[in-house]
Specification:
Blueprint: E1 2-6, E2 9-13, H1 21-28, E3 47-50, E4 53-56, E5 69-71, H2 84-91, H3 101-114, H4 120-127, H5 137-150, E6 164-167
Parallel strand pairs: 1-5, 2-6
Antiparallel strand pairs: 1-2, 3-4, 3-5
C-alpha cells in the first residue's frame, strides 16, 4: 500500500510498487487527463508535479511518491473556474490537437510556482522536453508570460476541499 497526497487529497493505493505512476493514475484512480506519449520519459505528455517539480511519470515507480504531494492536470483548475494559467492558455490559443497540453500545463505550472516571473530563457529551459507536434511553442511562451503577469499565485489545488480516500 502506497500513500500520497493527490491534488490535495490523501490517497492510498494497493498496487505493485514498481507500477509507473502514470498507470496508477489512469487505471486505478481513473484520472485520464495525463497522457501516455513515448513511454521513455522523453516527450512530457505524462508530466505531473511531484513535490513542486514537473516529473515524467511513465517511468516513475509509484513507490517513489510515497508520502509526497502529486498534482495532475485535474488538480490545476476546474472547468467552471480555470486557473490563471489555463485561462492564459485559452486566451493565447495554445491548444491545437490537445494531446500534449496536460504535460505542457503541468510543466508551466511548476515553473510559475517556483518562479513567478520567469525570463524567456527560464521558460525555454523549464519547457524543454515537452514536445508539441503542432508547434505551438510561441503561443505556449506567450501564455506563460501572460499568466506570470496576471497571476496572484498559481493555485494547484484547494486544500479546504481535501478529503481522504482508499483506492485498490
Amino acid at each position: 500500500m502506497i500513500s500520497f497526497i493527490l491534488n490535495g487529497t490523501s490517497v492510498d493505493v494497493d498496487v505493485s510498487l514498481d507500477t509507473p505512476l502514470l498507470w496508477v493514475m489512469r487505471d486505478h484512480l481513473k484520472l485520464k487527463g495525463t497522457k501516455f506519449g513515448c513511454g521513455m520519459g522523453l516527450c512530457g505528455a505524462c508530466s505531473m508535479i511531484v513535490d513542486g517539480v514537473s516529473t515524467r511519470t511513465c517511468i516513475l515507480p509509484v513507490a517513489s511518491v510515497a508520502n509526497k504531494n502529486v498534482t495532475t492536470i485535474e488538480g490545476l483548475g476546474k472547468p467552471q473556474m480555470l486557473s490563471t494559467l489555463q485561462q492564459a492558455w485559452v486566451d493565447n490559443s495554445v491548444p491545437q490537437c490537445g494531446y500534449c497540453q496536460s504535460g505542457q500545463l503541468i510543466s508551466a505550472s511548476a515553473l510559475l510556482n517556483s518562479n513567478p516571473n520567469p525570463s524567456d530563457a527560464q521558460i525555454d529551459d523549464a519547457m524543454s522536453g515537452n514536445i508539441c507536434r503542432c508547434g505551438t511553442y510561441p503561443n505556449i511562451k506567450k501564455a506563460i508570460k501572460a499568466a506570470a503577469t496576471n497571476q496572484v499565485g498559481v493555485q494547484t489545488f484547494d486544500p479546504s476541499e481535501s478529503t481522504s480516500g482508499v483506492v485498490a
